[in-house]
Amino acid sequence: TLTPNSWQSSDVALKVPQGCFSILTWPLCLVMEPTVVSTSTEAPDEFDRNAPRICGVCGDKATGFHFNAMTCEGCKGFFRRSMKRKAAFTCPFNGSCTITKDNRRHCQACRLKRCVDIGMMKEFILTDEEVQRKKDLIQRRKDEEAQREADREARRPRLTDEQSHVITTLVEAHHKTFDDSYSDFCRFRPPVRDGPVTRSASRAASLHSLSDASSDSFSHSPESLDAKMNFNNLLMMYQEQGSSPDSSEEEASSYSMLPHLADLVSYSIQKVIGFSKMIPGFRYLTAEDQIALLKSSAIEVIMLRSNQSFNLEDMSWSCGAPDFKYQISDVTKAGHTLELLEPLVKFQVGLKKLNLHEEEHVLLMAICLLSPDRPGVQDHARIEALQDRLSETLQAYIRLHHPGGRLLYAKMIQKLADLRSLNEEHSKQYRSLSFQPEHSMQLTPLVLEVFGSEVS
Ligand SMILES: [Zn+2]
Ligand SMILES: [Zn+2]
């Protein structure tokens, strides 16, 4: 059969390849080896790249191997026509014309003789039937490729109408329940930051000036060593402080930010309830299940939604007016400790860095709300089905619309796991706060109801 080696002798254009070419067998190669389908075979790359490609018949610029010899297009056509017509030419001269590019039309006899001399073979010319077969084969390949492309297209993940509807609904629900201007915040009891400075507040504040000092490196890479050291410093300072025996008594009277933040949390709970009512399927759950889901997930959804105002540059939640810019130290002045705030800030940084699309952000909140494994849930299967539908929508959305989001879904699910432990720590701290009447009286009825431990 034809192999590149056949062509690799030095007088390549003049040599007839070894072996017998049967007109009956060689067309099989057409089917078996696509590279041989064309009768005009390009010379293999590896041999004599720089050798001039000259027509062995007339010396014109050659275009490749035609019928077994390197020739120009003109001599290729001449040979084919001559063979098909079974033409018999006679030399008008003495039978030994030198064929050149310019005179090649003058003597067909000597041109054809030259063709045969350099190895051109009529067996390499396709019959009409073979030409048709070759065309059919090429067409069949094209059709197959088109079919494969159509199959690939059909397998591409796409959003169903229902999934698109879910996303649109959730984005709308979020817009209706999250006010970018934070204009309602001025109706809360006002923030008080200059009250009696407690140890933990002052330490948190000093931690803040620390992070301010390194804010340059922070903004470049929030997960730099600097940032981690700050967290560790914070944590250590807190632990030192927490271990001092007289601190708790001193703390007790000084939660100056508690009224404002209690109102903020209460307001956020209302908004989370509004959002959840608009999650497709949520309203059809029993009232008991709706309450069970909300009670256990409200704080997680609040942490998720607060990421929208979280600011990587100074690790604060910035909600419009300077008064509504919340630092870690502000939250400690509402009775929470760094045991919650340190992982919470880490969580906010990590979530922010996922650069979620709004569609992904709202889906994550809905998935969080519809977790079937919450305490007190009755219709486990129904909630799981709703959550599965949301998860599938999220995965399809990421595949389709989030370039480079191959690992994003897994990272988002990890954030849900992080939220569980934040929730646990929050409950712990809320419980100890609410056991102190002078603090629990600052909370709102909604906060008391939602975060309260009694199962309804
Ligand atoms: Zn030629
Ligand atoms: Zn001649």
From TrEMBL:
Q: Name one GO biological process term.
A: heart looping
Task: Tell me where in this chain the Nuclear receptor domain is found.
Answer: 52-127
| Gene3D superfamilies, per database record | Erythroid Transcription Factor GATA-1, subunit A, Retinoid X Receptor
KW Transcription (keyword) present = yes
Pfam family membership, one: Hormone_recep
Q: Name any GO cellular component annotation.
A: cytoplasm
Provide the transmembrane region boundaries: none
Q: Which portions of the sequence form the region Disordered? A: 137-163
Q: Which UniProt keywords apply?
A: Cytoplasm, DNA-binding, Metal-binding, Nucleus, Receptor, Transcription, Transcription regulation, Zinc, Zinc-finger
Query: Superkingdom of this entry's organism?
Result: Eukaryota
Recall the GO molecular function terms of this protein's record.
nuclear receptor activity; vitamin D response element binding; zinc ion binding
Residue ranges annotated for the NR LBD domain, each copy included: 162-452
Q: Please name the InterPro entries in this protein's record.
A: DBD_VDR, NHR-like_dom_sf, Nucl_hrmn_rcpt_lig-bd, Nuclear_hormone_rcpt_NR1, Nuclear_hrmn_rcpt, VitD_rcpt, Znf_hrmn_rcpt, Znf_NHR/GATA
Localization: Cytoplasm; Nucleus
Role noted for this protein: Nuclear receptor for calcitriol, the active form of vitamin D3 which mediates the action of this vitamin on cells. Enters the nucleus upon vitamin D3 binding where it forms heterodimers with the retinoid X receptor/RXR. The VDR-RXR heterodimers bind to specific response elements on DNA and activate the transcription of vitamin D3-responsive target genes. Recruited to promoters via its interaction with BAZ1B/WSTF which mediates the interaction with acetylated histones, an essential step for VDR-promoter association. Plays a central role in calcium homeostasis.
Q: How does it assemble?
A: Homodimer in the absence of bound vitamin D3. Heterodimer with RXRA after vitamin D3 binding. Interacts with ncoa1 and possibly other coactivators, leading to a strong increase of transcription of target genes.
> Family assignment?
Belongs to the nuclear hormone receptor family.
**What is the name of this protein?**
Vitamin D3 receptor B
Q: What is the lineage of its organism?
A: Eukaryota, Metazoa, Chordata, Craniata, Vertebrata
